Amino acid sequence: MHKFFIPQENINGETAVIDGEDVKHIYKVLRLEEGDQVSLNDCQGAEYLAEITDVSKKEVTLKIIKKLETNNESPVGIYLYQGIPKSQKMDLIAQKATELGVMEITPVITERVVVKSELGEYRKLDRWNRIALEACKQSKRTLIPKINQPLEFEDMLKALSAADLILVPYENQEGKGLRKVCRDIDRAKVKSVAIVIGPEGGFEPSEIDELERIGAHIITLGPRILRTETAGFVCSALVLYELGDLGGEL
User: Fold this and answer.
1) Model confidence, pTM
2) What percent helix, strand, coil does the chain show, rounded to 5?
3) Are residues 24 and 136 in the same domain?
4) Within a domain: residue 247?
5) Tens of pLDDT, residues 164-188
6) Average pLDDT in the 88-116 region?
7) How far is CA 223 from the centre of its chain?
8) CA dihedral sign, ordered 63, 64, 66, 69
9) Engineered SS bond to 60: which of 18, 89, 151, 175, CB 3.0-4.6 Å?
10) Mean pLDDT (whole number) for 27-48
11) What is the dihedral of CA 222, 228, 234, 238, to 10 degrees?
């Protein structure tokens, strides 16, 4: 069943309206018509089964049939802090992190970030959030992850205090991996995990010292060096497998 995210104000009692870019996609690509049923999400996590009652070139009107008891979110929230990479790699990060189930993505300006002069990164937020929304539709997410404005490294350190667990994959770490961390913690108390990924040039040793000082676990992801855009996916997937819902039930 096709799924659409619409603003909460577009749902009024038993009637809902889809407008904007989705309208053309509905009648021209999907060729949906009166009587077809779809799933609606109000962008706040509430989902509904709805039936199309009218299709025009400006909007699609629907009748709410029932509220759906659907929740495709992990019981553990993953908050990805990503050192800003070059080029359009953040597009890929926004898409794949959303598919995996990451709750928030925050670009971070670390010492070795080479796009400092290009803080047109702020202007890319709209695009990254649109990419996340499209990934939500494809992956049947219940909540749309938020992509925050870039933070300076020092500001990120303050934000990390909200997480129950902080993980920092680091190419120079040896031995201590996610398995050991998960074995040593009280899993029941971990509801939010911050994952901090360095940019292409990696972290400065002083930045790793600062992260250790606030209680971050500096870990290895294995003997092979991963690209910055890959490391976040791998670490998120491992955390969701160990502490969340990735991999299904036993």
Assistant:
1) 0.89
2) 35, 25, 35
3) no
4) no
5) 999 999 999 988 999 999 999 999 8
6) 91
7) 27
8) positive
9) 18
10) 92
11) 80
